[in-house]
Amino acid sequence: MARTIDELAVLSGVSRATVSRVLNGGSVSAKTRSRVEAVLGETNYRPNLAARSLASGRSNVVGVVMHIDPHLLFQDPYFSQLLQGMSSALADRSAGMMLWLGNRSKEDTLGTILSMGLVDGVVVTANSLDDPLVDGLLASELPTVLVGHRKADRTASYVDVDGVHAADAMTTHLISIGRSRIGYITGMPRNVAAADRLAGYRQAMKRAGLSVADTIVEGDFNTPTGVTGAASLLDRGVDAIFCANDAMALGALETIRARGLRVPEDVALAGFDDLEFAARLDPPLTTVRQGVREQGAEAVRNLFELIEDRSRSPRRVLLPTELVIRQSTVGGGPRT
Amino acid sequence: MARTIDELAVLSGVSRATVSRVLNGGSVSAKTRSRVEAVLGETNYRPNLAARSLASGRSNVVGVVMHIDPHLLFQDPYFSQLLQGMSSALADRSAGMMLWLGNRSKEDTLGTILSMGLVDGVVVTANSLDDPLVDGLLASELPTVLVGHRKADRTASYVDVDGVHAADAMTTHLISIGRSRIGYITGMPRNVAAADRLAGYRQAMKRAGLSVADTIVEGDFNTPTGVTGAASLLDRGVDAIFCANDAMALGALETIRARGLRVPEDVALAGFDDLEFAARLDPPLTTVRQGVREQGAEAVRNLFELIEDRSRSPRRVLLPTELVIRQSTVGGGPRT
DNA sequence: TTGTACGCGTTATCAT
DNA sequence: ATGATAACGCGTACAA
After folding, report:
1. Were both Cys, which of A332, B142, B146, B154 would link to B158 (CB 3.0–4.6 Å)?
2. In whole angstroms, what is the distance from residue B108 CA to residue B213 CA?
3. Helices and strands in chain A, H and E counts
4. Which residues contact B178 (CB under 8 A, 6 or more apart)?
5. How confident is residue A77, by pLDDT bands cut at 50, 70 and 90?
6. Percent of chain A having pLDDT more than 90?
7. CA-nearest residue of chain B to A90?
8. A6: which nucleotide lies closest, measuring CA to C1'?
9. Does residue A125 sit in helix, strand or coil?
10. Cα A169-A172-A178 angle, rounded to 5 deg
11. For the packed helices A132-139 and A106-114, what is the interaxial angle rounded to 10 degrees?
């Protein structure tokens, strides 16, 4: 029942320093070590992590900041998967995670995070073009890795997927199956991922010599704007609809079917994210899969490099995406 | 650029103790206070939380443990909402959250959590009948609140919803609309919520004098088992299917429609959870709404009571649920 | 290899 | 109201 390292020292007849060495893998004679470990075994001692942090200057805890719209957080598995990936990578290093969601003002959150001795570094989701929280973190001394990135983050470490390339590939796919009037439902204009995907769509359309006048409607990543956005696009006579995420594609599918149109014969449909339900839709949805867990894990690994060598230059990682072609674009196959 | 409280003291010409009082709201003369605060303003000092924890014995951080199947965590918004509720209640107290998911062994996780000086208390999800992690937490000195509970947790503080009552109410609703061959797709047998809901179903059926021989099939809370479970039940000629959660109801709906049966005319369908998609199904799904965010927030509030008065007797809270009646059981209304 | 002694930055106790 | 001063528990130069 030893509560402190001093008590352990007394019980095992050595000095506090020796016990500390046993605990942290210093050089101790085999004999002494086994003696201390014997005591350790029968005493269920637990080190005081606050004291350890204070003395060593490291807490072995990293912060995770996901300061986003609660509604989005609720329904989009993206964030759960991101957490899982981070948690997994943290477990590999026996490190802990402090989590901040958007329940306090960004100023308050920032202040807490920057408190000394709390976290060794932080991973923050950067999905807004201007985010004072991200700016504050980057301006601070605290090692910081972004998940996602803004154009201005060229000097920061980040992990992202190449949304431009992915959206370009999807648009190219739609063109390759003979569609030319390809409508696009985008996300919030200030959302970085939305902007990237839109850019990829534009880029592919332009390369194919197709017009994007009147083919783009604005959504907000939620299903209802997929419903209304698709209605608007169908009125303009599109033969394909590419949605910036699966949630909106779900809404678009509703609208298409409500009008008695066939997918993909009349209108091809594509999403982005490959959420769980995408494969279960009727017809199964063509979409883009991004390794969200892997993003989270990579962000943590990236952060640890920064923590262990703070002078290291920023490392920027673009993870690959995968085009998942299903019957909502290539049709013909057996319907489930 | 004062980094420590001592530097602040020198800069403002007072002692370290006085600065500490200003910071923590001790009694200081207005004059002295304003002097210190002036220095404070131009120096962006941030207290060292590790030192504070060590000296005060409190970290103002609580642990949250959700040691569950990653796959479930991915797709079920339950956990996101729970986190949101907790985060919100923590923000009210300016407290932080450490999060542990199931990436390490329960022994390792338990060991870390029980380390001194890390967290002031812990909220843990208890969804398994026997969980060494929960047992270890309850056996420890650390203030602990469960979300959910096992039968044996009568001496612990917990927050839960009355799943028995809710399932009873739903079953009674199905009976009230004239169904008598009511099939039930349950969750994993060792899952507490699943067991509660099943008990509620049985209870209502028994009270109505209806047989449950051959009306219960086992699922696992995921959509595929809803598909297969419903097939099995339909073969037995049921006129209603009650699923232990919405995800399985989604699968059941697929099966029912694939057989060309009408909902609710031929088969009434009910779920549990009221997930986002439930209202969007065709027909909209009758289900049970439980205030998940509220559960999380209440768990945190409960925990703080325990932290502030460790001798306080355990407080057990059962939050109410709400029957959400939609067209999958009462039909007739306008289809969307 | 082991022990001594100091420092980490803060809160809290006790005088004044 | 304010100021010394002692904890808080651990890591780690430095000395032995």
Report:
1. B146
2. 44
3. 14, 12
4. none
5. confident
6. 82
7. B103
8. D9
9. strand
10. 150
11. 20
The span from the CA of A13 to the CA of B315, in Å, is 44
Task: List CB contacts of A305: < 8 A, sequence separation 6 or more.
Answer: A312, A315
Q: How far is CA A43 from CA A8, A185, B295, B296, in A?
A: 8, 62, 37, 35
Give me A61's structure tokens.
Answer: 């805890």
Of the candidates A64, A74, A103, the beta carbon closest to that of B91 is on: A103
Structural domains of chain A sorted by starting position, each given as residue range(s) with its CATH number in brackets: 5-47 (no CATH), 61-161+292-318 (3.40.50.2300), 163-290+323-330 (3.40.50.2300)
Query: Nucleotide C7: nearest residue by CA–C1'?
Result: A55
d(CA A138, CA A299): 15
Residue B176 contacts residue B182 (beta carbons within 8 Å): no
A52 to chain B: closest CA residue: B50
**Cβ A116 vs Cβ B48: under 8 Å:** yes
| pLDDT for residue B332 | 64
For A51, other C-beta atoms within 10 Å of its C-beta total 17
CB B195 within 8 A of CB B129: yes
Which residues, 6+ apart, have CB-to-CB distance to A30 below 8 Å? Answer: none
> What whole-number distance in Å separates Cα of residue B214 and Cα of residue A276?
31
Q: Which burial class, exposed, middle or buried, applies to B12 when counting CB atoms under 10 A from its CB (0-12, 13-18, 19+)?
A: buried
Judge whether residue B22 contacts strand C, using its CB and a 7 Å cut-off.
no
DSSP per-residue codes, B190-210? TBHHHHHHHHHHHHHHHHTT-
Task: Report strand pairing: A321-324 vs A287-290.
Answer: antiparallel
For the range B34-39, what are the long-range contacts, defined as Cβ-Cβ under 8 Å and sequence gap of 24 or more?
B36/B8, B36/B12, B38/B12, B39/B2, B39/B8, B39/B11, B39/B12
Residue A109's pLDDT is 94
Q: Which one of A109, A116, A253, A282 would you mutate to disrupt binding with B, by most B Cβ within 10 Å of its Cβ?
A: A116
For A5-28, what is the mean pLDDT? 90
Give residue B187's identity as a one-letter amino acid code.
Answer: G
Element (H, E) at A241: strand A240-243
**How close B28 gets to chain A, by Cα (Å)?**
24
- Best residue in A48, A79, A250 for a mutation probing chain B (most B CBs within 10 Å): A48
Q: How many CB pairs under 8 A join A and B?
A: 132
Q: What residue ranges of chain B have pLDDT lower than 70? A: 1, 332-336
What does chain B come to in residues? 336
The confidence score (pLDDT) of residue B334 equals 45
- Asked if the Cβ of residue A189 lies within 7 A of any atom of strand D, the reply is no
pLDDT of B139 reads 94
Of all nucleotides, the one whose C1′ comes closest to residue B9's CA is D3
Q: Tokens for B331, please give them.
A: 């039909």
The whole-angstrom separation of Cα A119 and Cα A101 is 16
Indicate if CB(A28) is under 7 A from strand C. yes
Q: Report whether A285 contacts A328 (CB < 8 A).
A: yes
What residues contact residue B41 under an 8 Å CB cut-off, 6+ apart?
Answer: none
Q: Is the CB of A29 under 7 A from strand C?
A: yes
pLDDT, average across residues A124-149 = 93
* Cross-strand pairs, A161: A319
Residue in this structure with the two tokens 């398994």, named with its chain if needed? B128
Q: What distances in angstroms separate CA A109 from CA A335, B95, B121, B290, one per listed residue?
A: 49, 11, 21, 29
